[in-house]
Amino acid sequence: MALYKRSRFRDSGFRRVVPLVLLVVITVLVIIFMIRDGVDVESWSLSQEVGGGDHVELDTNFRPELPEKTDLATSLEKRNRLPPRNRDRFPNLARDHIKIVLYVHNRPQYLELVIRSLLNVEGIGETLLVVSHDGYFEEMDRIVQGIEFCQVKQIFAPYSPHLYPDSFPGVSPGDCWGKDDPDEKKCRGNADQYGNHRSPRIVSLKHHWWWMMNTVWDGLVETKGHSGHILFIEEDHFIYPNAYRNIQLLAKLKPSKCPDCYAVNLAPSDVKSKGEGWKSLIVEKIGNVGYTFNRTVWRKIHAKAKGFCSFDDYNWDITMWATVYPSLGSRVFSLRGPRTSAVHFGKCGLHQGNDKSTGCIDNGQLSFEIEEIDKRSNIVSDWPVYVYEKQTGYRAGFKGWGGWGDERDRQLCLSFAYMYHVAGASSD
After folding, report:
1. Quick one: which residues bind Mn(2+) (predicted)?
2. Annotated binding-site residue? 96
3. Residues 300-319: tens digit of each pLDDT
4. Both ends of the chain: CA-CA distance in Å?
5. Is residue 289 in a domain?
6. Computed from CA positions of residues 254, 256, 258, 262, in that sequence, does the dihedral angle turn out positive or negative?
7. Which of 37, 86, 203, 411 is deepest in the core (most CB within 10 A)?
8. Which domain holds residue 14?
């Protein structure tokens, strides 16, 4: 009898252990398959901690509204749905590829220089280059159409103020200008904290960045299922030949070298710096040149849409530094190498373009001395990590430079955050 009881006890204990063993085995197999299929394991594991990598936090009381599109905006949105070009030359993307997004406005002389730099980047043919246009400018379109060194997809912001010459989000009849008094002028609009009314060409800076982020992560067929890192660069960022290999390595090192880092960067946060030149990895605040993060981080940013869209500053990066990053509950660091792999070279502001009356013109004929060390990956995996605990720059408490006080801009910005998650949000 005693023998029977002991046997039954052992059987019941075995039955309790079996599910745990099976769970461990299944988890290991899943990770093995994910690595084999090129899935970002870091992003996946983080997503489990926050309750799912594709979880989207939405305000159920907000009703998104998008402007009725102009004919040009409608035709451009149709182009957004075209497949990438050059797939015949580059039929397969590398399993561990990091997609690249280049966002541009209207500085063709700058764009040509950036494209020439990308042509010489090692590994560029392994990935997809997405070029996001703020408005439509024929010469910018022509330059991008000439790219032949990788898969390339163009997208055009269909709600860019540059596509609406006589209606919001462009210039609307009856809008207030400058420091107009709405009661005296009988005009429409909300002034910013400095008493200035909206300027469409200025607010398009922030609108484009936010529309692009929402579209790349949640709207495009080619990217909305991508859980790995995406690299973001601008039309005045010169990219070194080793940039892509360096960013791949940094993304792989981040879980072990800086598990609390939100991103990896190609360049120092100080755009005038070329790096320390140390034999050490660097951890510092996220810079705005060659920044790279994954879907889990995007979900954290997306959840702060209300703060992003209500902060009175027309600059997306200052908005992030002053209100979004501080609201995430921890220090938002980025991992980079000790030597820059990208350089910001623009002299003219993003929305000054080719207007000679602004007095901000250069011919874009800049030259960069590329040393041998810049032609190959120059980051060593076993380097130690140096952390900048305190840095200057914009931070929580900065009130913003203004330009973003009109309630219509804030509502359109919020609508971009909802347009791929709420049925009927599109104006189509």
Report:
1. 236, 344
2. no
3. 999 999 999 999 999 999 99
4. 77
5. yes
6. positive
7. 203
8. 2-37
